[in-house]
Amino acid sequence: MLINRIKQIPLYVLAIIILIFTGLPFLIMINSSFKSQLEFMTSPWSLPDAFTLSNYSSVMSSDFFNYFFNSLIVSAISVVLVIVLSAMASYPLARMKFKLNRPLFMLFLVGMMIPIHTTLIPIYLLTIKIGLYDTIWGLIGPYVAFALPISVVIFTMFLQDIPKELEESAKIDGCGHFKLFWKILFPLLTPAVSTVAIYNFIHIWNEFVFALVLTNSFENYTLPLGLREFYGEFSVNVPGIMAALTLSSLPLLLVYFVAQEKIVKGIAAGSVKG
User: Fold this and answer.
1) Which of 41, 113, 203, 211 has a CA-to-CA distance to 76 between 20 and 30 Å?
2) Quick one: 63-271 is in which CATH superfamily?
3) DSSP single-letter state for residue 149
4) How many CA atoms, within 13 angstroms, populate the side-chain half-sphere of residue 207?
5) Radius of gyration (C-alpha) of the chain in whole angstroms
6) Domain layout of the chain by residue ranges
7) pLDDT (tens digit, 9 = 90+) per residue, 124-161?
8) pLDDT digits over 4-34, tens only?
9) Average pLDDT, the chain
């Protein structure tokens, strides 16, 4: 028992080092958000001499919540669509045998390799053509499209691990494909759903390029674009940016802490086959 604990010491040391490297920037961000601009410039690494909430007040008095709710609406709708569409697409790939099964799966794998920057011009022109330019709704299509490949792969891997005996017994009882998937198989995909939801929510919440190209007015900006408001012409309000970043990261932290157990189980289950 003692020997096993001694063998685990390097793992704990490595975990502590990783925690420091990942947690320190977040602590510095929170610490800086309670400083004035002058105090930050003179002593950026020390604790605040006097904690001030002026940065948070200025953030809340700006259009921050407009950007926040735009990001929340776009992210929530996009994630729901990705889960539904990718789960339905993965069912025939994982459970049905047909000639195009393998080529279609490989097509989704290829879709993961397409750089988004190569699609900006055609998506920009298409968005203008269908009348969705400079609207938050015009962002949902590209977000869903680029999230589908990896989501389909994740769901397909999980579905392949579910015993086929469940499917066969359900078909004997008269279950069709639609009822079989949504009533029996989909409830078993909770770890995969959590993994797909968190991964895509974080990616969409932080997405900048499509939001920059497909929106043009302040009322339709998402958070990554709205944070530029704290950049002045000749100076940068660093504590204000830190306060805005702290507030904008709260939904990500909340969602992750609520679903982290399912995410870990999903990653572990998806990494083991057979």
Assistant:
1) 113
2) MetI-like (1.10.3720.10)
3) H
4) 29
5) 23
6) 63-271
7) 999 999 999 999 999 999 999 999 999 999 999 888 88
8) 777 788 888 888 898 888 888 889 899 998 9
9) 84
Please give the biggest Cα pair distance in the chain.
74
CA 158 vs. chain centroid, Å, equals 19
Q: Which residues pair with 231 in a beta bridge?
A: 236
Q: Residue 68's Cα: distance from chain center in Å? A: 15
Decide: helix, strand or coil at residue 183: helix
Measured CA to CA in angstroms, residue 171 lies from 90, 142, 183 at distances of: 19, 37, 12
Q: 272 falls in which pLDDT band (50, 70, 90)?
A: very low
Question: What 3-state DSSP class applies to 170?
Answer: helix
Looking at residue 8, its pLDDT comes to 80
272: how many CB neighbours lie within 10 A of its CB? Answer: 7
Give first-to-last CA distance, the chain, whole Å: 31
